[in-house]
Specification:
The complex is a heterodimer of chains A (524) and B (151). With 524 residues, chain A is an alpha+beta fold. Chain A has 20 helices and 15 strands. The chains are: A alpha+beta (524), B alpha/beta (151).
């Protein structure tokens, strides 16, 4: 696949040099540096070959700003990094929002954090930041907000039209699970348009990453996605280990996988409970939390916390697991396997639930690709993509598990996929427990100070919500020069306006819930 | 008469459903069967601030969220109380650094806070202790003997 793309790129862009990169080191296979004029042609090139735009981000190198596009494909492993250098004084770049829907969102983000204007973009109002901000936060030097941008600070006001009504949902709304705000334009009971407004929980994680050393930033990762904290921990430590070149002992790999999969089950359990509560059924909430509390006791015994874990370290684990943990995990796995029948009886076979969720929020493959949707939502659309299989990290390559996919892509499918994913997580835990052998849980000499090589890395892991991409630029110091988090909830949210269109207002909650959004992850 | 009213208020605190961040999950855990906040009459989470008399600020308050929080607080009928749950609501917690641009460092800069519950996030038991402290503040007497101070 990589060779084919490389050959085709060569014939399409004859005057450009296409660099072959070392995938284990950088996380992408090819890279090319484009001029602004070629960008849309390149995007169409990738669009024609069914690539999706995994992330679009910006790095401030002081002499120039670099916009980085990572293109990836569902059907095989091939990643291409495309870069575009622009002038920092008057930063203007062409937009890709006409080709890829997700670029529309990423470009708004880049605009408010770096001050880059995108030619041809339909809406440059601020998405994340509050209206009192006077600088571009992620620029390395202090750059004041330009006069033209000042007008777009919080200039969002829903368009009032005579034949429609705007309804504000959130930021304090019981069913948005946090502080998401969606403005819905209604035609009677039907949604004409949905407009998410974000940033009510923007906690400056990416700015903090540039201010802290690699070790100091570790606890933050668990607070970005508090439900899948282990997956974030794992993503971050594996990314930095890959950047620095640390080999982790086998025991640590297995314990990491057990802890991560337990956390994935906890996350899905909470989703089942909260989603059903959104739809009006409170009792599954109590059952799901009962299971979850059982699980948290097991994890708490080794990690010391219930929610925002920080259990992994660069080179291994914080502490070793004991026999009580193994016994507790085995007991939980046995208990959980017996509970699925109960959930099937309580929820899956419940005719109210089925009629409430069947056929709504149907996600098409094309929309899934254009919005770079990921995780269970993508698998609901029938694309069996899971980064534990596609790009194995830790010791997932040794594990034997299947990837559940849906047929219809509706909210009901999302429920079944998440339930089946819990079963596959149990399978992985079983296999990891069987392979867990004695040995060190930490490398012999854990690095006191991390000094990674100069360069960048795009590392992906599978969190309970989908593709988490971490893009780190290192300048050989002990702090990251730039760290971008490509978060799954954000790209799943991008599909929401399209999914909500034409549906009933009461179904908007059911669709929003089926995406399993975690707001601090979107806002970072 | 006031004493009777205070007793009634203390035993039926109705919190507004207002989850901000990670702490909201622990707040939900506290409401579930294992920790069961209903034992203290505080399990009636109200989606509307107009029906509530207690606000649990469970999470980070950003500058964008601050006006919303103030509106919600103003909409609550008096008498009303506030619990600042977690380090973020108390002081900004782990997200304070030099040059931060988006955080309210402590919700007490916006609204008066009655009880602070530290932790990141606090355990559900911690939140329950916060409720007992608030009851003590309202009635002047404590429902249970307090925890033994060991240090």
């Amino acid at each position: 696949m990589v060779d084919k793309v490389q050959a085709e790129l060569k014939s399409a862009f004859s005057d450009l040099t296409i660099h072959e990169e070392s995938y284990p080191e950088c996380g992408y296979h090819l890279s090319l540096d484009l001029a602004a004029g070629d960008l849309e042609k390149a995007a169409r090139f990738f669009d024609d070959r069914r690539f999706y735009l995994a992330v679009e981000l910006c790095v401030d190198y002081r002499e120039y700003l670099e916009i980085v596009y990572i293109f990836s494909i569902h059907s095989s492993l091939c990643k291409v990094k495309v870069t575009l250098k622009i002038d920092p004084v008057n930063p203007v770049a062409p937009t890709l929002s006409k080709v890829f829907d997700c670029a529309w969102w990423y470009e708004r983000e880049i605009h408010e954090f770096y001050g880059v204007r995108f030619d041809g973009h339909s809406d440059m109002t601020y998405l994340f930041l509050h209206d009192g901000i006077d600088v571009y936060p992620l620029r390395k030097e202090k750059v004041l907000v330009a006069e033209a941008d000042r007008l777009e600070l919080n200039s969002f006001s829903p368009e009032q039209r005579e034949d429609s009504l705007s309804i504000n949902m959130g930021p304090q709304h019981p069913s948005t699970h946090g502080v998401l705000r969606v403005v819905l334009r209604m035609d009677g009971e039907y949604i004409e348009d949905a407009y998410p407004v974000l940033g009510y929980l923007h906690r400056m994680q990416e700015k903090m990453a540039e201010n802290r050393t690699y070790q100091q930033f570790l606890p933050n990762t668990g607070r970005m996605d508090y439900l899948g904290a282990m997956s974030y921990n794992l993503g971050y430590v594996t990314a930095v280990e890959r950047l620095v070149g640390i080999d982790v002992p086998a025991r640590a790999h297995y314990v990491r996988m057990i802890a991560t999969e337990l956390n994935r089950i906890a996350s899905h359990l909470l989703w089942v409970g909260a989603y059903l509560a959104d739809l009006g059924g409170l009792s599954p909430f109590l059952y799901a939390f009962d299971d979850r509390e059982n699980l948290l006791d097991v994890l708490e015994a080794v990690t010391g916390s219930r929610l925002t874990y920080c259990y992994f370290r660069f080179g291994g684990l914080y502490n070793d697991v004991d026999d009580a943990f193994v016994a507790g995990t085995k007991a939980f796995v046995a208990r959980m396997r017996g509970r699925f029948a109960l959930y099937e009886k309580l929820v899956g076979g419940n005719v109210i639930f089925i009629n409430r969720t069947r056929g709504i929020g149907v996600i098409e493959r094309e929309l899934a690709r254009k919005c770079a949707v990921c995780g269970p939502v993508l698998r609901g659309a029938g694309i069996g993509m899971d980064f534990r299989k596609a790009e194995p990290y830790a010791a997932y390559a040794e594990m034997n598990f299947e990837i559940p996919t849906g047929r219809n892509g509706d909210a009901l499918d999302m429920y079944h996929i998440r339930i089946r994913e819990m079963e596959t997580s149990l399978d992985i835990i079983d296999q990891s427990l069987a392979r867990l052998s004695d040995g060190p849980f930490m490398v012999e000499k854990p690095p006191k100070k991390l000094k990674p090589r100069k360069g960048d890395l795009y590392h992906t892991v599978e969190t309970p919500r989908g593709e988490l991409g971490i893009y780190i630029v290192s300048d050989e110091s002990d702090k990251p020069y730039r760290m971008k988090w490509r978060v799954p909830s954000f790209s799943n949210l991008m599909a929401f306006p399209e999914l909500a269109k034409g549906n009933l207002l009461s179904d908007a909650v059911a669709i929003l819930g089926s995406l399993d959004l975690v707001i601090p992850e979107i806002d970072r | 008469m006031d004493k009777v009213l205070d007793l009634a208020r203390a035993n039926s605190l109705w919190p507004v459903t207002f989850g901000l961040a990670c702490c909201a999950i622990e707040m939900m855990s506290a409401a579930m069967s294992r920790f069961d906040i209903d034992r203290f009459g505080a399990g009636v989470f109200r989606p509307s601030p107009r029906q509530a008399d207690l606000m649990i600020v469970s999470g980070t308050v950003t500058k964008k969220m601050a006006p919303v929080l103030l509106t919600l607080y103003d909409q609550m009928p008096s008498p009303k109380w506030v619990i600042a749950m977690g380090n973020c609501a108390i002081s900004g917690g782990p997200f304070v650094f030099e040059g931060q641009y988006n955080l309210i460092e402590g919700v007490d800069k916006l609204i008066p806070v009655d009880v602070y519950v530290p932790g990141c996030p606090p355990r559900p038991e911690g939140l329950l202790e916060g409720f007992l402290k608030l009851e003590e503040k309202i009635t002047g007497t404590r429902r249970f003997p307090g925890p033994v101070e060991r240090w």
